[in-house]
Write a structure and sequence with these properties.
This protein has one domain: Hydantoin permease, CATH 1.10.4160.10. With 434 residues, the chain is mainly α. The protein is globular. The protein contains 17 helices and no strands. 77% of the residues lie in helices and 0% in strands. 52% of the residues are buried. The chain binds tryptophan. Tryptophan binds next to helix 1, helix 2, helix 10 and helix 14.
Length: 434
């Protein structure tokens, strides 16, 4: 059984895949607009502090627990204590729910790539975005297309599919990002964007901002649904988790910052507002693209960049339910992928339609899309992360000394894992529910 499990070709391919999972819409779509809403640099500093001191703990715990237990997550939890089986199930279920809304945004990206290549001359981008997201057929088709792409890579297995996707898409992502940054910085008054990002405004400090930074940090590091646990379980035994964790955190943060450096100078150069929320990438940027020479080309490059980032994250999300179906329910990888395609489609299509035809259908006062976003980001992911820390700290008795050489930091890690991180997650959950 153990020997039938897939494993990474090398330490490098594991790190690249984990970075591919972490770097996604969270970095390029969510990070800039949340940072914009919470006052730029102050948010950034809080976020950075949280990442290196707090979020580092559940991240290394997920990877280490996966590496030690070497099972898909349900059986892994069950092997620690049969009572934990249900908590294990919550991870693949969260994955299916996250993908159902993440992939809708993936579908929008495909639409904007197509749009970049066709000369449509859209006048009002906000209006266009509204009309497009309401159109049932186009959005459903694009969502399914995005889902299919992720499933396609996943079906080919860990080495031929996941590694291949990351090995090709991540370098492409990095090259496009650097080109777009050069372009953005070359625009007049681009320094205003950098000032906005890096000049702290301490009046913006608030508990709310702190929680937003914590939530963003968990989401961007893919913590709280077993994605990194599953990737960790494919590591062969002789790897140093600590170094890999640092590399993942540093790369993810670097890419989020670079995304900001790509986006804010352009926004300020055109005298636009940086805090337009989710529409920043789909409304404000497309407007800028129509105002600049070779805008179509830049637009295509930008959305292809977003597509590459979203696919590598999407693959990591669906690997959790796939691993469970293959190992626990003994389905072939292909059958597991087909089943998962149907499952996600069955949730994602109604969620897509909730922008238009199904807009009146409300779950707890929210549209299906908003509801999925809400229960995954505000409830299930912090809850999964909480259970993971508690199980690893108290039941599995994962200790800092096995991961960190420095005795002092190892001790701090233990306290963090058993008390500090769970307490913060409970606070996050409490305010997330309000
Ligand atoms: N981290 C990814 C992003 O920034 C999203 C993501 C991938 C994710 N896998 C995850 C989020 C698992 C939570 C859990 O876009």
């Amino acid at each position: 059984m153990e020997n039938n499990r897939p494993s990474w070709t090398s330490r490098f391919s594991f790190i690249l895949a984990a970075v591919g999972s972490a770097v996604g819409l969270g970095n390029i779509w969510r990070f800039p607009y949340i940072m914009g809403q919470y006052g730029g640099a102050v948010f950034l500093v809080t976020y950075l502090l949280l990442i290196v001191t707090i979020c580092f703990i559940p991240l290394i715990t997920e990877l280490a627990a996966g590496k030690f237990l070497k099972k898909e997550i349900i059986s892994a939890y069950e092997s620690i204590n049969p009572k934990f089986k249900l908590l294990g199930y919550m991870n693949p279920i969260t994955g299916i729910l996250i993908s159902s809304f993440y992939f809708i945004v993936g579908g929008w990206i495909i639409n904007y790539i197509v749009l970049s290549f066709s000369n449509t001359g859209i006048e009002n981008h906000a209006e266009y975005f509204g009309t497009f997201t309401q159109s049932p057929v186009a959005t459903s088709v694009y969502t399914l297309l995005f889902l299919f792409t992720c499933i396609f890579f996943a079906a080919r297995g860990v080495k031929k599919g996941i590694e291949f996707a990351n090995n090709t898409l991540m370098p492409m992502f990095a090259v496009i990002l650097i080109c777009l940054i050069c372009f953005s910085l070359s625009l007049p008054n681009s320094h205003l964007g950098l000032e906005y990002m890096f000049k702290p405004d301490f009046s913006k400090i608030s508990g709310h901002m702190f929680l937003a930074a914590l939530g963003q940090a968990l989401f961007t590091l893919s913590i709280g649904m077993g994605a990194l646990f599953t990737y960790g379980s494919y590591i062969k035994d002789d790897k140093s988790i600590l170094k890999s964790t640092y590399t993942i955190i540093l790369s993810d943060t670097m890419f989020a910052l670079l995304a900001g450096i790509m986006i804010f100078p352009a926004i300020f150069s055109f005298g636009l507002e940086p805090n337009s929320g989710a529409g920043l990438v789909f409304v404000t940027l497309p407007y800028i693209f129509t105002q600049i020479p070779h805008g179509n080309l830049i637009s295509a490059a930008f959305f292809i960049l977003l597509f590459a980032a979203a696919i590598t994250s999407g693959i990591s999300i669906i690997e959790v339910p796939i691993a469970s179906m293959v190992e626990r329910f003994k389905l072939s990888r292909t059958k597991a992928c087909v089943t998962l395609f149907c499952l996600i489609a069955a949730i994602a299509i109604p969620a897509t339609l909730s922008f238009g035809v199904l807009g009146d259908l409300k779950l707890f006062g929210k549209t299906i899309f908003d509801f999925l976003d809400f229960i995954t980001s505000n409830i299930l992911m912090p809850l999964n992360a909480l259970f993971l820390c508690l199980i690893a700290g108290w039941a599995l008795k994962l200790r800092g000394v096995t991961l960190i050489k420095n005795k002092f930091f190892a001790k701090l890690f233990d306290i963090g894992l058993k008390f500090v991180v769970p307490a913060l997650l409970i606070i996050l959950l409490y305010f997330g529910l309000k």
